[in-house]
């Protein structure tokens, strides 16, 4: 199943935010990545926003989207959505260049600290212009942002030269970047220049295909197993499960998708079996821990 995104700067406009909500319902869009929103519902679990004046926000409209590892900054918000660490940013055009550099430093540090192997999506209005994402002008902000993108090995997803900010001669200041492993999963990135939205920025839409992962090591035939001929002591197994759960505390995962829950459960069962069962003799073949649980030995 694909995950659909819409990205926009709402120009702190109430009517623009109302139209976005209506458009998401009509088009069945899962996630909105919003720069300069008008309001945030702090009591709703569907909203995640940056600190302070809420310059950036993520709105989740679908119950099928899981949320974890929320990171808040005055100028960006990030959360792991269905296993992807998503960033939404907003840099005011009135911000001094030195402050813009500080934002990029914090953003870069946050992205680099992301758990290894977790794909990253970086979005927002940086008010930065560069030919690297299709603009015909490059300013200092654009140079600094493109340098950061290059240093992080991110892929620019912007396509074509349609302005995302159409006022005057137009400019491309709303951008989308992704890690290489994620970029190949992004489909149909486009600027919706014909959709009226009450903002001075066009919507950007794209979708994210489901990850086609290779079988995990736990599912391979290299599992070493345990000595199970004598059965398993239920008290020892329970102690092992409790120990595994205790060691997982503080990881900071709020809600996990089904695949992640399955991986975590498998890891806990494996740890419990390691605690409660002796290793196999050299003559025994391996046995998957899930088979042990299903059998109830």
TrEMBL record:
Lineage: Eukaryota, Metazoa, Ecdysozoa, Arthropoda, Hexapoda
Residues annotated as signal peptide: none
Residue span(s) of domain Endonuclease/exonuclease/phosphatase: 85-204
A Pfam family annotated for this UniProt entry: Exo_endo_phos_2
InterPro entries assigned: Endo/exonu/phosph_ase_sf, Endo/exonuclease/phosphatase
Region (Disordered): 276-297
Name of the molecule in the record: Endonuclease/exonuclease/phosphatase domain-containing protein
Any one GO MF annotation of this record: catalytic activity
Species of origin: Macrosiphum euphorbiae (potato aphid)
């Amino acid at each position: 199943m694909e995950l659909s995104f819409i990205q926009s700067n709402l120009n702190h406009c109430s009517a623009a935010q109302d139209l976005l909500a209506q458009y998401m319902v009509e088009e069945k869009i899962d996630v909105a990545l919003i720069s300069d929103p008008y309001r945030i519902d702090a009591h709703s679990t569907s909203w995640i926003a940056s600190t302070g004046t809420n310059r950036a926000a993520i709105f989740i409209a679908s119950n099928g989207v899981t949320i974890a590892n929320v990171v808040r900054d005055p100028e960006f918000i990030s959360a792991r959505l269905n296993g992807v660490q998503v960033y939404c940013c907003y840099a005011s055009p009135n911000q001094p260049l030195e402050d813009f550099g500080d934002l990029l430093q914090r953003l870069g540090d946050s992205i680099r600290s992301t758990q290894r192997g977790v794909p990253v999506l970086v979005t927002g209005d940086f008010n930065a212009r560069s030919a690297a994402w299709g603009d015909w002008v490059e300013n200092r902000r654009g140079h600094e942002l493109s340098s950061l993108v290059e240093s992080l090995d991110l892929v620019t997803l912007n396509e074509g030269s349609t302005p995302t900010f159409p006022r005057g001669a137009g400019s491309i200041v709303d951008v989308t970047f992704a890690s290489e492993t994620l970029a190949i999963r992004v489909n149909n990135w486009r600027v919706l220049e014909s959709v009226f939205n009450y903002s001075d920025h066009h919507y950007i839409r794209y979708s994210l295909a489901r990850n086609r992962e290779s079988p995990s090591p736990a599912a391979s035939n290299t599992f070493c197993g345990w000595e199970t001929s004598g059965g398993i002591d239920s008290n020892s197994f329970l102690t092992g499960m409790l120990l595994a759960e205790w060691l997982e505390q503080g990881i900071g995962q709020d809600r996990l998708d089904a695949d992640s829950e399955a991986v975590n459960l498998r890891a806990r069962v494996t740890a419990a079996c390691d605690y409660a069962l002796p290793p196999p003799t050299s003559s025994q073949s391996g046995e998957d821990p899930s088979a042990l649980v299903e059998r109830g030995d």
